[in-house]
Design goal:
Layout: H1 2-5, E1 8-12, E2 15-18, H2 19-51, H3 55-80, E3 86-88, E4 98-99, H4 100-133, H5 143-169, E5 175-179, E6 190-193, H6 194-226, H7 230-255, H8 260-277, H9 279-294, E7 302-305, E8 308-315, E9 319-324, E10 329-333, E11 343-344, E12 352-360, H10 366-379, E13 390-396, E14 401-409, H11 415-432
Antiparallel strand pairs: 1-2, 3-4, 5-6, 7-8, 7-11, 8-9, 9-10, 12-14, 13-14
Helix pairs in contact: 2-3, 3-4, 4-5, 5-6, 6-7, 7-9, 10-11
Length: 450
C-alpha cells in the first residue's frame, strides 16, 4: 500500500508530486468543505436568526469564514505538497526567513482575528446591549456610544494580539535600539522592539476591556438586584476604572522596559516642580476623586452653579459636565463643586418645594382665592399629592393682598414651565370668578401756595 502512495505522478525541477500527497490533500479539502457547509449553511443561519442579525452582517460573516477556510486549505496544501519556497534570501543572520507559508500563515492569523472580532463585538456585545434594551430599567441615551466604544476596544485587543502572534511566530521583531538598564551588570542589555510597543498597547486595551466586563457583566446585575441609584453606580464605576488603568499603566511601562523604582524616584522630584506650575489642575484632579468618594454631586443630580441650573451628566477626572435647561453642556471644574458653594436640588430627595406669588385686590374673598389656587395646583400633573400643596397668606401689600401657592414636584429642570402653566390657569380662574389682580397704585398729593 505504501508503494502505491509513493508513486510519482508529476515531477518538475526537483519537485515530485506523489499519489499519497494527492489523496491527503484531496481529503483535507473535502473535510474543510464539509466544515464550511456545516457551519455556514447549517449552524450560522440558526444563530443569526436568533440574534436577529441583518443580511449584510450575515454575508460578512460568511465571507470571513470562507476566506479563513481557504487560507487553512492553502496552509495544509503547502505543507502536504511541499510547495514552500523561500522568497527572500539574505546574508544577514538576523534577517527573518520569509517563505510562502510565512505570508499565508500571517494572513490566516489575521483572518482568524477578524472572525474573533465578529464573534465578540457583533454577536456577544450586540446581543448583550439588545437584551439590556428589553430590560425594564430605563437606559440613558449614551448606550449606543458605549456599545460602539466597546466594539472598538474588542477590535483593538484582537488585532493587537494577532500582530503579536505574527511578530513572534515569524521572527520579525525589529529592534529599535539596545540599552543597558540602570543597576544592571556589565554585559546585561535589553532591547526595545516592536513587541514592546505591542505588549504595552495590548495591556492598555485589555484593561479597558476588563473594566467593561466587570462593570457591565457583573456589577450591573448587582446594582439592579440591590436597587443602587445611578449616581452611586457611576461613582463606584469611575473609581474602579481609575484603579484598573493605574495598574495597567504601570504594567505597560514595565512592558516598555522602564524600571518602576526609577520612575517613582524621578516622579517624586518631578511632581514638586509640576505641582507648583499646575496647582489648579491638580486641585481639580484631587477634587474629582473626593467628589466620587463624598458624592456631594452624583450623575443625574440637579445642581445650581453660578445661577445655572442643570443635570450632572458626567463626573470626569478633572471636570464635570452639567447639561442646562437649554440643553447646553457646561464644563465645570471639579474644584468648584468641592471648594465653592453650589446647590444640589436632588441630593437628599427626588422632590423639592416650589411656589408662585400672586396678589389680589383689597376686598377680595380670601377663602375663594385659597380654594382656586389649591384646585389649580391639584389639577397639574407635575404637582405631587403628598405632601399636599398649600396656600400662604404672606402680607398686606401696598396695593394687594399677597399670597403664595406652595407645591412639591419631581420636575426640577422644567419647573419654570410648570410655574408658567399654573400662572396661566390662575389668571383664567380669577377672571371667571371675579377676582381682581391689581396693579400698583399710589396717590400723590400736591401741596402748593395760592
Amino acid at each position: 500500500m505504501q508503494e502505491i502512495f509513493d508513486q510519482i505522478i508529476l515531477e518538475y525541477n526537483g519537485w515530485a508530486l506523489r499519489l499519497g500527497q494527492v489523496v491527503l490533500g484531496t481529503s483535507i479539502l473535502i473535510v474543510l468543505a464539509f466544515l464550511y457547509w456545516l457551519v455556514a449553511r447549517r449552524l450560522f443561519p440558526k444563530i443569526a436568526a436568533h440574534l436577529e442579525l441583518p443580511q449584510e452582517e450575515r454575508r460578512k460573516a460568511r465571507r470571513i469564514l470562507g476566506t479563513l477556510l481557504v487560507l487553512m486549505a492553502a496552509v495544509a496544501l503547502i505543507a502536504v505538497l511541499q510547495l514552500d519556497r523561500q522568497l527572500v534570501e539574505t546574508t544577514n543572520e538576523n534577517a527573518p526567513n520569509l517563505f510562502i507559508s510565512t505570508f499565508v500563515q500571517a494572513m490566516l492569523i489575521w483572518q482568524f482575528a477578524r472572525l474573533l472580532d465578529f464573534v465578540i463585538s457583533r454577536l456577544l456585545v450586540t446581543n448583550y446591549y439588545r437584551n439590556r434594551r428589553e430590560d425594564p430599567v430605563e437606559l440613558d441615551r449614551y448606550q449606543t456610544d458605549s456599545k460602539n466604544k466597546t466594539n472598538r476596544t474588542v477590535q483593538y485587543a484582537v488585532y493587537i494580539l494577532a500582530l503579536l502572534f505574527i511578530v513572534q511566530a515569524f521572527e520579525i521583531d525589529w529592534v529599535f535600539y539596545t540599552y543597558k538598564p540602570a543597576g544592571a551588570e556589565d554585559g546585561q542589555t535589553r532591547n526595545f522592539s516592536v513587541s514592546n510597543l505591542l505588549n504595552a498597547a495590548f495591556i492598555i486595551v485589555l484593561a479597558r476591556l476588563f473594566s467593561w466586563m466587570i462593570i457591565q457583566l457583573i456589577l450591573s446585575q448587582y446594582y439592579r438586584s440591590k436597587q443602587i441609584n445611578v449616581g452611586s453606580q457611576y461613582a463606584f464605576n469611575q473609581l474602579l476604572q481609575y484603579f484598573v488603568y493605574i495598574i495597567a499603566g504601570l504594567m505597560a511601562l514595565e512592558a516598555l522596559g522602564f524600571t518602576l523604582t526609577l520612575i517613582w524616584g524621578g516622579a517624586a522630584a518631578l511632581l514638586v516642580g509640576v505641582g507648583l506650575g499646575l496647582q489648579e489642575t491638580f486641585k481639580d484632579l484631587f477634587s474629582g476623586v473626593i467628589l466620587l468618594f463624598e458624592r456631594r454631586a452624583e450623575v443625574g443630580d440637579v445642581v445650581e452653579v453660578d445661577g445655572l441650573i442643570g443635570t450632572v451628566k458626567r463626573i470626569g477626572v478633572r471636570t464635570s459636565l452639567v447639561e442646562t435647561r437649554d440643553n447646553i453642556v457646561v464644563i465645570v471644574p471639579n474644584s468648584r463643586l468641592i471648594v465653592q458653594h453650589f446647590v444640589n436640588w436632588s441630593h437628599n430627595d427626588n422632590k423639592a418645594r416650589f411656589y408662585i406669588k400672586v396678589g389680589v385686590a383689597y376686598g377680595s374673598d380670601t377663602e375663594l382665592v385659597k380654594q382656586l389656587l389649591l384646585d389649580i395646583a391639584r389639577s397639574n400633573a407635575e404637582v405631587i399629592r403628598h405632601p399636599a400643596p398649600f396656600v400662604r397668606f404672606v402680607d398686606f401689600g401696598d396695593s394687594s393682598l399677597d399670597f403664595e401657592l406652595h407645591f412639591w414636584s419631581h420636575e426640577f429642570i422644567r419647573i419654570e414651565d410648570v410655574k408658567s402653566d399654573m400662572r396661566f390657569k390662575v389668571d383664567h380662574a380669577f377672571r371667571e370668578n371675579g377676582v381682581t389682580i391689581p396693579f400698583p397704585q399710589r396717590d400723590v398729593w400736591m401741596k402748593g401756595g395760592g
